[in-house]
Amino acid sequence: MSHSCHGHSHGGGHNHDHDCDACCAENLRGQEFNLYLRIDMESLTCLNEVEDGSGKTIFRSFEDRLDKDKFVASDADAELLFNIPFTGSIKLKGMLVIGGERETHPNKMRLFKNRPNMSFEDIQAKADQEFDVHVDHDGAIEYKPIVARFSDVQHLSIHFPSNHGDCDRTEVYYIGLKGDYTEARRHEVTITAYETQANPADHKTSSLDTIGYMIS
């Protein structure tokens, strides 16, 4: 009897540890999939969405990935095309895609790097990378872009051409983006500072005068 009781106590402690491990792992994953914070949301567009602006709602925190009130659905056919500008440069290392039920869940994903304002006419071009997308309702499946290919991304276009049900409606509830972020370089500041200095080349002077100016 005492052995059984001891076993029960041990099991309870083990489950508690397991729960802690799972919680820590989820927190870590949430910290990793945080590139949604680096998206220029005002400029993000989703083509062929039923409800205007709904495409923006699926880029959110990992903790809110299971919120079924926020999703985007395709309108005229199964295709969805996201144009995602960032506030700086990212190195894309991982992606999560949560879709609708099997019939409306995307089955393919095509990525295009640094091609702003793509339209459905533009997606005939070869994608920088393509994935087969599996049915995933929890954000458990991670897709790994080729990091060397997506190491300097200011703009990412994501094209979902079809779904598992071969129907006209595709639904996406969440897209998670993982990677590194670099602030945008401020070239205009450098240029302004340069232009405030007198430039000898702007004046017709002899070579000797120019050299004298540069030395002084």
TrEMBL record:
Gene Ontology cellular component list: cytoplasm; nucleus
Source organism, top-level taxon: Eukaryota
Domain (PITH) ranges: 24-197
Coiled coil residues, start to end: none
Cited InterPro entries: Galactose-bd-like_sf, PITH1-like, PITH_dom, PITH_dom_sf
GO biological process, one term: regulation of primary metabolic process
Family: Belongs to the PITHD1 family.
Family annotation (PANTHER family): AD039 HT014 THIOREDOXIN FAMILY TRP26, PITH DOMAIN-CONTAINING PROTEIN 1
Name of the protein in question: PITH domain-containing protein GA19395-like
